[in-house]
Amino acid sequence: MSLETRRLAELADHDAFIKRHNGPSQDDVATMLKALNMQHMEDLIEQTVPSDIRLGRELALDEPRSESEALEYLAQLARQNRVTKSYIGQGYYGTHMPAVIQRNVLENPGWYTAYTPYQPEISQGRLEGLLNFQQVVMDLTGMELANASLLDEATAAAEAMALCKRGNKRSKSNVFFVADDVFPQTLDVVKTRAEFFGFDLITGPAEELASHDVFGALVQYPSASGEVRDLAPLLSAAAERNIMTCVASDLLSLVLLKEPGQLGADIVVGNSQRFGVPMGFGGPHAAFFATSDKLKRSIPGRIIGVSKDSRGNTALRMAMQTREQHIRREKATSNICTAQALLANIAGFYATYHGAEGLRKIAGRVHRLATLLAEGLKQAGITLAHDSWFDTLRLTGVDAGKIHGRAMTHDINLHYFANGDVGISLDETTTAHDVGTLFDVLLGDEHGLAVAVLDEQVVANGASGIPAVCQRESDF
Predict the structure, then answer these.
(1) Rg from Cα positions in the chain
(2) Angle between the N-to-C axes of helices 341-379 and 124-141, in degrees from 0 to 180, rounded to the nearest 10
(3) SS3 string of 345-409?
(4) The pTM is what?
(5) 325, 385, 444, 461: least CB-packed within 10 angstroms?
(6) pLDDT per residue as tens digits for the range 273-313
(7) What per-residue string of b and e applies to 129-154 under the rule 16 or more CB within 10 Å gives b?
């Protein structure tokens, strides 16, 4: 800090912050320079930083601010943001974090100080939370095994592609198939990873899954545009051709939809964000990764298991670690950071807080509102791209420009497809009033639809967007 800057800081009462700063003091700097036989910090910079990359002048910085002044300035900038309600979906949804979880987990450093619970004797609480997360994922996906979270859904899908290659001993193909209706961010990450793995990639309709010579395939369930299709015939046909299959799914939808394990999936991945984790400007959000027991030695990430301590008491530990510092590189099953422990624990506690019935109520309400919206739009003459849905509708043949204008007036964000279609994804935070506002946005003010009347019709007719063959029958 220059003398002029220091004087300004003193005038602005910065001293309180400077005393807490972890940087070197003036005495520290003097001692260092003396040991180096130098007079000024500029001498050190000239001898260590090549001249061709030095700026050659002082940084053009604003006058210094005190800590309180800086916070007020940042708050002032934040107030300029325009906060809108998002119906974009595509893997990111509004959710309510229970206050008890926010206060006792998210805001409690005891839950997030350890990247990995290497010392199980002092990490039993976090280990139990992660074990709970694994069980939630296993119950909802219908798979035999789940790990303790991955980085996000897109990288989990890329890890699934790698696992398909490692685990498929019957196929000599070097090609991986991705359905063209997966989330765009997932497709982008899978493309990037495939390039560096040396894999070839094929994209196409999910129905073509088994018509290619590939070692593995990825499909979305429900699809990115909201369709709920019966995957059992596709996955069965793939198995007959020795194609390993990965289903990217949504945990909340699996409360009502038939579980992918029951449909024949080899791997199930997805995002646990809508289990109480705020959208957070796109991340981070804990992914889940579930598979069959026979693939446990190849699964990426870590698995928490139940063991016994030296006195014979039940204890928890990391039963498997497939990418850690003490594992030889050629033995690791992943080369990326493979955990989101804090957010996985939040998602697991969210499921515990609500319980099975609570989750059914939330998923049922989301689906009922989506069905109510769908029925109203159809009565108004709007064409839906699909006859099935869980929480997402895709509108075709509409004037996206007019809809966008009305949406901006109501501070609403929708999903606008490249071909002019419009997508709407509902979530836990959506209310009946919100659906009425959506009718105004999508149809204009003269639509004449009453949410209460539509709801009576939906209940009376037993209307549902989930095909009977896709409805969950097992308990959890």
Answers:
(1) 27
(2) 30
(3) HHHHHHHHHHHHHHHHHHHHHHHHHHHHHHHHHHHCCCEECCCCCCCEEEEECCCHHHHHHHHHH
(4) 0.87
(5) 325
(6) 999 999 988 888 999 999 999 998 888 888 999 999 889 99
(7) bbbbbbbbbbbbbbbebbbbbbbbbb
Strand locations in 90-210, DSSP E? Answer: 145-146, 175-179, 200-204
Task: Walk me through the domains of the chain, giving residue ranges and CATH numbers.
Answer: 3-76 (no CATH), 99-350 (3.40.640.10), 356-470 (3.90.1150.10)
Tokens standing for 326? 């003490």
Whole-number pLDDT of residue 202: 97
Nearest by Cα to 161 from 292, 334, 304: 334
Q: Are 58 and 42 in contact (CB under 8 A)?
A: no
Structure tokens at 364: 């049922």
In this structure, what token pair is assigned to residue 128? Answer: 């139990």
Structural tokens at position 287: 């992914």
What tens digit of pLDDT does each residue of 448-472 get?
999 999 999 999 999 999 999 999 9
Q: Which portions of the chain are predicted below pLDDT 50?
A: none
How far is 159 from 145, CA to CA, in rounded Å? 16
Beta pairing partners, 304:
318
